[in-house]
Amino acid sequence: MAFHVPLIRFSGADGPACACQSCFSIAARSQDLQNFDLFIIVEQMRTRDYLGSFELMVMLALIRLGENAYGVPITREIEERCGRQVALGSVYATLERLQEKGLVSSDLGEPTAERGGRAKRYFRVTAKGLREVRQTQVALKKLWRGLPQLEGGAV
Questions:
Q1: CB 33 within 8 A of CB 10
Q2: Cα first-last separation, the chain
Q3: More confident residue, 105 or 13
């Protein structure tokens, strides 16, 4: 969340303690506030992280595969369903980003001999991730609706 919290002290002709342009503008317009010791301005920006198209593809593949999916099957699912090549590294980078956002979680499996003693990292969608996918679906349907160029017909 981005906050702008300048502390402005009005003490006669001293002006604001903060040097940003918006605070000077407020101080100039706020002659009647000179009796106050402190004036706080808080601007709060919306911080919802929207899913990008590839993030959405990874989330949908993960939902389709269910519990304990890992990079290779996720990559294969996207390639088969979308008809495009996908780099395994981009899937793992996306999964890491989605995990940082709290949209997926992961667990490390048991090391296996076939992987040279390395363990697989298994991913699953969190409740927050499922909500985000549903919200994205609703938003895209609203945007899609009413566009005759995209309804039916051949490409």
A1: yes
A2: 42
A3: 105
| 14 burial level (CB within 10 Å; 0-12, 13-18, 19+) | exposed
- DSSP for 76-134, written as a single string: HHHHHHH-S---HHHHHHHHHHHHHTTSEEEEEEEE-GGGTTPEEEEEEE-HHHHHHHH
Domain total in the chain: 2
What's the pLDDT score for residue 109? 87
Looking at the fold, whether 69 and 129 belong to one and the same domain comes out as yes
pTM for this one?
0.66
d(CA 20, CA 15): 12
Give the structural domain span for 100. Answer: 53-137
Do residue 25 and residue 87 come from a single domain?
no
pLDDT score at 124: 95
Q: What is the pLDDT of residues 48-90, one digit of tens each?
A: 668 999 999 999 999 999 987 999 999 999 999 999 999 999 9
Structure-block tokens of residue 42: 């808080």
132-144 burial: b if 16+ Cβ within 10 Å, else e: bbeebeeeeeeee
pLDDT tens-digit readout, 123-132:
999 999 999 9
